[in-house]
Amino acid sequence: MTAHRAGVGNRLLAALPAADLGLLTPYFQKVSFEPDAVLVRSGEELDPVYFPHSGAIAFMLDMPDGQTVATTLMGREGALASFSVLGPSPSSVTAIARVAGTASLISAAKFRAAFAQSAAIRHVVQVHARAVLLQLQHVAACNALHRVDGRMARWLLQLHDRVPDDMLPVTQEALAQLLGVRRTTVTLTMSKLREVGAVPSDRRGFVEIDRARLEKAACHCYALMQRTIDQMYCEELAASPPAPGEQKMPAWSGAADRAFPR
Q1: At the topology level of CATH, where does 147-218 sit?
Q2: Which of 32, 136, 163, 220 is 20 to 30 A distant from 77 in Cα terms?
Q3: CATH 1.10.10.10: which residues of the chain?
Q4: Which long-range contacts (CB under 8 A, 24 or more apart) does 152-155 make?
């Protein structure tokens, strides 16, 4: 990874009042990461905390037989290792960059100290935690119930939400790992998506998509999951944190066009 000057391009950080953000910025280091970079390994302590500004990071669950499958995808809307606020603990997943990007990182200890001081930081972490849990629940149900072509379309749409281009920099090997299937299955599934015009081309580590047709090919999990998460982010991140002793309930109605506006 390459170090850069820190800035605010992360959706959680952008939601913080200046004074609360100021508890973090003196300790930030901005880094860049390349595709396939391992940011956290399963079993390692959650340290440091990453706030992505761009790119896409997949949380991969390592199975005993050596296979891996993605459980979550994160971009500038999230914070990798934010659960370290609960105390030092090992990661249960491996976090791998699927699309190159940048992030601001801070040590878990410094982040826990700011978390303890700021109700606003606690609020954005709580909103993010609920969004991650919701995504995990939807992905688990989707993996159990839906066909591979619908699931692949969902992953491609989630990548597209975080990449400002219809030509996605993703290999078939990466898609196989996201889906937990063999490369041959990815090749056959890609052919099905090409037949309906959802993937006009895929070559040299890039997948070209037609967003409208890809949305039609995706299982209904994508629209439901992204609409609910976006509703949560738009309404709750904009709201002030609850007062001590007050419990703020998430809103579940309404919709927005895209999950994570660029």
Answers
A1: Arc Repressor Mutant, subunit A (1.10.10)
A2: 220
A3: 147-218
A4: 152/179, 152/186, 152/189, 152/190, 152/193, 153/193, 153/198, 153/214, 153/215, 153/217, 153/218, 153/219, 153/222, 154/218, 154/219, 154/221, 154/222, 155/70, 155/73, 155/179
Instruction: Check whether the bond before 244 is cis (ω within 30° of 0).
Output: no
pTM for this predicted structure = 0.83
Whole-number percent of the chain with pLDDT over 70: 88
What are 68-98's pLDDT values in tens digits?
778 889 999 999 999 899 888 889 899 999 9
**H/E run at residue 126:** helix 119-145
Contact of 134 with 194, CB cutoff 8 Å:
no
Largest CA distance in the chain: 55
Homologous superfamily of 2-118:
Jelly Rolls (2.60.120.10)
| Interval 7-29: pLDDT, tens | 458 999 999 999 999 999 999 99
262: confidence class by pLDDT, cuts 50, 70, 90: very low
